[in-house]
Specification:
The chain has 124 residues and is of the alpha/beta class. The chain has helices at residues 38-49, 61-66, 82-87, 112-123, and strands spanning 22-25, 53-57, 74-75, 91-92, 97-100, 103-106. The chain has one domain: Rossmann fold (3-Layer(aba) Sandwich). Helix content is 29%, strand content 17%.
Length: 124
């Protein structure tokens, strides 16, 4: 978004959740590409079933919501997508960072540092 470039090491189709302790969906302009992506949903569900951390920031919690992971869970998201979380039965808190069991959500870039700290704390 701000001109950085990243070298892709694996595509979403190559992700094996067993290889990771956490799966993190990042927000930003391209995140909506995964809202209806069955592969992204499968990765989130599989990681959740394996007891891994499942995390999302900015608008990316919508992917978790549409994968069925946020129903009944405390969660937050960038304010433009709040109704999407409510629609699936998430307990939308308007917080900056929410931790509910193994699911961590954050509302946007201003909360990125605290989001990272919450993930690190759960991984310890």
């Amino acid at each position: 978004m701000l001109g950085a470039s990243v070298k892709v090491e694996k595509t979403i189709n190559e992700v094996n959740t067993s290889d990771y302790d956490a799966v993190i969906f990042v927000g930003g302009p391209g995140a909506s590409e995964y809202f209806e992506d069955s592969t992204a949903h499968s990765i989130a569900k599989r990681a959740n079933e394996q007891g891994k951390l499942v995390c999302a920031i900015c608008i990316a919690p919508v992917t978790l919501a549409r994968a069925g992971l946020l129903t009944g869970k405390r969660a937050t998201v960038f304010s433009s997508e709040a109704n999407e979380l409510k629609r699936v039965g998430a307990v939308y808190t308007r917080g900056e960072v929410e931790v509910d069991s193994n699911i961590i959500t954050a509302d946007g870039p201003a909360s990125a540092k605290e989001f990272g700290k919450a993930i690190l704390e759960k991984l310890k």
